[in-house]
Specification:
about 450 residues, elongated, 7-stranded mixed β-sheet, mainly beta, disordered N terminus, 3 helices
Length: about 450
């Protein structure tokens, strides 16, 4: 998880996220206490959710659920030998929506284990004209770094996690599990995204905390982190028509329900997008594999999803199977950018990267995917296998036409040169014979 305070967001992004209700500028302060009334879990964060849902007229709408400061923490507990610690916050008019995070630890560190978000799509105030009803649950393995025990995790950078039509947006996070003897640490462990966004960021820093006293209805804004006195800058990129350097290649995978890898992808990815029809404001951004989180889902019956999240950049690939040809293909791409400029778009009628099920698709040369009129993805050193992965390894690759051309051109040149040599030799032999015949005639 990762998060960023309102004053750290660029002005354009700030207007967008506040205007559309994406990033409310108030924090949720929570403490979970044990039977001895000592704090075991502490959290001060900003969080909200945007859900894409279908209406009764089969249109897609977005519903934003802002987490208020009057949440309840029923169901949270400190954990024991058989159960992981759990932080759970419920909100809404009847507290019908909830979000939770479980924690795991080693002898020297801890981290988030699983994120759960449940929402009641029958809430007509939040989801007007929704086609579905009932409680929908979204599960996601947390990608939080391992944090040394007795240190508080801090991440100011905005982080967007997209799973099953739900955007989970976090920023300005201060979080500590396995709190020692009820005393919240003053030593901070800074997330990678915060370190990469500053020129010189320490891995630990001071943090002064005044925890909320109520474990059920926590008081808001009772945390005063000293480290927050230093504003973390958000880097912006001016519009440009010239591409940046070739993107680094990343290795990504998705794990299925049984714990086995069910989708593999290796790719260098570059995103080009424009919010205007004349494309005067085109931006070109590279996906950084060192900062990218991979998630998704697999369904051997015909659908697989790979989601890549690099800070404020989100790209989702959906693969399908053509049953008549038994080939998989890239069917849909979704793009969402929150920084440096808010932008989103997608296309669910694509037909790229075709290969037989049970094999992988490979294209080493640059390949451009036109998603929409204003969105283009460029891939480099691509190999992907969304179905029938065996033992976590790629199967035999079916190459793209541009890679095959790499072999055809040298062969064609070799054949042409060979033919030219044969022509020269034949011409030489014919010339020799004619010269000999002319010599005989002159001698006689």
């Amino acid at each position: 998880m990762a998060f960023a305070c309102c004053q750290c967001i660029t002005p354009v992004l700030l207007l967008f996220v506040i205007g559309f209700g994406i990033l409310p500028c108030h924090s949720v302060n929570i403490t979970v206490r044990n039977s001895a009334d000592k704090i075991c879990i502490y959290a001060d964060m900003m969080i909200n959710f945007t859900v894409q849902y279908q209406t009764i007229t089969n249109k897609t709408r977005n519903a934003t659920l802002q987490v208020p400061d009057d949440v309840i923490t029923n169901g949270s507990f400190c954990g024991n030998e058989s159960s992981m610690p759990l932080l759970k916050i419920s909100f809404g008019k009847s507290y019908e929506h909830y979000w939770s995070i479980s924690f795991t630890n080693t002898t020297s560190s801890y981290k988030g284990h699983e994120l759960t978000f449940a929402y009641n799509i029958s809430d007509k105030d939040t989801f007007p004209d929704a086609k579905e009803e009932g409680i929908k649950v979204v599960l996601q393995n947390d990608t939080m770094d391992y944090v040394p025990l007795n240190e508080i995790y801090r991440c100011n950078s905005v982080d967007v996690i997209y799973v099953s039509e739900v955007f989970q947006i976090f920023w300005n996070v201060h979080l500590q599990a396995f709190v020692d003897n009820g005393t919240i640490s003053t030593k901070e462990f800074v997330c990678k995204a915060d370190i990469s966004s500053t020129t010189a960021a320490p891995t630990t820093a001071a943090h002064t905390t005044t925890p909320a006293a109520n474990t059920t209805t926590p008081a808001a804004n009772t945390t005063t982190p000293a480290a927050n006195a230093t504003t973390v800058p958000v880097t912006t990129t001016a519009p440009t028509s010239s591409p940046p350097v070739k993107p680094d290649t990343g290795n990504y995978n998705v794990t299925g329900k049984g714990g086995d890898i069910c989708l593999l992808a290796t790719v260098g990815l570059q995103l080009s997008y424009s919010s205007s029809t004349n494309k005067t404001d085109t931006r070109i951004l590279n996906i950084n594999p060192n900062l990218t989180q991979a998630s998704g889902s697999c369904n051997e019956s015909g659908r697989a999803v790979l989601t890549l999240t690099d800070g404020g950049k989100f790209v989702e690939f959906t693969f399908a199977i053509n049953n008549s040809s038994n080939k998989f293909f890239l069917k849909e791409v979704k793009v969402n950018v929150t920084d440096p400029d808010p932008f989103s778009g997608g296309n669910d009628s694509l037909n790229y990267w075709q290969a037989s099920v049970g094999s992988s698709y490979m294209c080493n040369k640059e390949q451009r995917i036109v998603v929409t009129e204003n969105i283009t993805l460029s891939t480099f050193s691509l190999q992907v296998q969304p179905f029938s992965v065996t033992k976590g390894n790629f199967s035999k690759a079916e190459e793209c036409s541009t890679d095959k051309d790499n072999y055809i051109v040298p062969i064609a040149v070799g054949v042409a040169l060979g033919g030219l040599i044969i022509i020269v030799i034949v011409a030489y032999i014919i010339g020799r014979r004619r010269s000999k015949a002319a010599g005989y005639e002159q001698f006689s």
